[in-house]
Structure formats: C-alpha cells, structure tokens
Specification:
mainly alpha, 67 residues, rod-shaped
C-alpha cells in the first residue's frame, strides 16, 4: 500500500473521532461568532459615520482615516 492511501485512510479515521468532531464544531461556532462580531462592528461604525455626517455635514479626519 502506498503512502497516499495510508494518509487518506488515516484522515478518514480521524474524521470519525468524537474529539475531532467536537473540535470542528467549536471551530465553526467561533468562526461564525467572529464573523457576526465583525458585521456588528461595521454596522455600528457605519451608523456613527452617518450620524456624524448628518449632524456636522462632514466626517472628522479620524473617521475619514478609518474609512
């Protein structure tokens, strides 16, 4: 049996382990939470920029730099 087949067999068996399954689930959960936080942060920043522009007619240099 060649090394490719052994590596494939090992990967297949590792995927069956409950520890690997738990790790993959946790990884997906963290990734989803991180993406949601990034979207929330962007939405908050967008709202702040809009409020500043509407109240002052322009953005501050700091806000423009962030954009």
């Amino acid at each position: 049996m060649n090394i490719y087949n052994k590596a494939h067999e090992l990967a297949k068996e590792l995927k069956k382990l409950k520890e690997v399954k738990k790790f993959n689930e946790a990884s997906k959960f963290i990734k989803t939470k991180l993406q949601q936080k990034m979207l929330d942060d962007f939405a908050n920043f967008q709202m702040e920029a809009y409020k500043m522009y509407m109240s002052e007619g322009k953005l501050s240099p700091e806000m423009e730099e962030k954009i």
